[in-house]
Amino acid sequence: MSPQMFNPDDFVFEKMCSPDERKPILEYDATNSLIITRYKNQQGEYDYESCFLNTLVNKNLLKYVPDEWSNDNDRICLFSIYEDGNYMLEKEKLKYDFNIKQTKWVRYSYSDLKLSEAKEIFEIIKAAIQTKNISEETEKNNQILTLANTKTYLAEKYDALCVLRDKILRESDWSQLPDAPETFAGELLMWTKWREKLRTLIKSPDDFETGLEYLIYTEDFTWPIDPSVYKEHFLELGVNYLETEDQYSKSIYFSIKNVENILGTTISNAARQAIEELKDGVYVEKEIYKLIRKYKLGENLPNFDVNNLKIIGE
User: Fold this and answer.
1) Residue 95 CB contacts under 8 Å (≥ 6 apart), including other chains
2) Higher local confidence (pLDDT), 153 or 161
3) Has residue 131 got a pLDDT over 90?
4) What is the spatial distance between Cα 303 and Cα 52, in angstroms, rounded to a whole number?
5) CA 23, 286, 300: angle at the middle one, nearest 5?
6) 21-25, 52-56, 60-64: lowest mean pLDDT where?
7) 221 vs 21, residue with greater confidence
8) Which residue in 85, 204, 284, 299 has the most C-beta neighbors within 10 A?
């Protein structure tokens, strides 16, 4: 599930809304751990997105908010807040029925929240969604790290590089023959240099401390252009062969035969950024950070470490 969308924070609680705008910017069904949020789509129109809170996050939210908002005997069921600051809060209170001599939940509307309290609940729910997203993202990152350290997977990536390199070398074997022709001065020496580069640039998983480092290397790997491509694009510029960064590319520039790059992408940029979060911490807005800590939203939550959170801009 994609991260819950919250744009804007551009509503103004004191705004006077037309009837068409009088729809919640957020709805929270505490009983079913369901949240619906409003956002603006690419066309500038309002749209809605839903997500289910992790059961533990939902439990922590209800447990650590002030008792007058929710407690074991008087709990939140439904909460909605509107752009003008009005809200709807339904709660359940545990009462004893003397007729049947049993306790039961009685549902009622609660209207004693101040505007600041209604907004606080709104912000807490936003922080709860962020907590859920961080936990899910961390779990995905851990799975990537597990995969990155699987020897079979790493061997497959290394073999793919070697197969592709060997295919290219075979197609250029002609350049090493004693009577190989030159189309410009020094071409054959360049072919020799190019072939040496191909052999030395390819590294194995054993050359790296971790599997993750090797996978990043395979994704970043750039191929040297061959002498024919150099002649077409660089010879007249007077630059030395394979001594500038622009003579290396993720694509394979091999002029003799079109060779398909069979490596593919091992780790997407988004995944790599997520992996860096495992090392450097997850960055969140300051107010979200404070709420996650204050209301212990990540307590006992797998794949969530509040100490790994960093504040954006600090």
Assistant:
1) 103, 104, 105, 106
2) 161
3) yes
4) 17
5) 85
6) 21-25
7) 221
8) 284
Tell me, yes or no, whether 203 lies in a domain: yes
Q: Is residue 8 part of a domain?
A: no
**Where is pLDDT greater, at 39 or 131?**
131
Q: Does the global pTM surpass 0.70?
A: no
How many Å separate Cα 210 from the centre of its chain? 21
Does the CA dihedral 147-152-154-156 come out positive or negative? negative
Question: What's the confidence (pLDDT) of residue 21?
Answer: 55
CA–chain centroid gap for 163, Å, is 32
Residue 14 and residue 83: Cα distance in Å, rounded? 8
Cα(139)–Cα(120) distance, integer angstroms: 29
CB 91 within 8 A of CB 74: yes
Total domain count, the chain = 2
Q: 45 and 124 share a domain?
A: yes
Is 69 inside a domain boundary? yes
Q: Do residue 116 and residue 166 come from a single domain?
A: no
Please give the full DSSP string across 196-233, using - where no structure is assigned.
Answer: HHHHHH---GGGSSSHHHHHHHHHH--EEPPHHHHHHH
Q: How many CA within 13 A on the CB side of residue 52?
A: 5
> Is 217 domain-assigned?
no
Residues 133 and 191 in one domain: no
137 and 158 share one domain = no
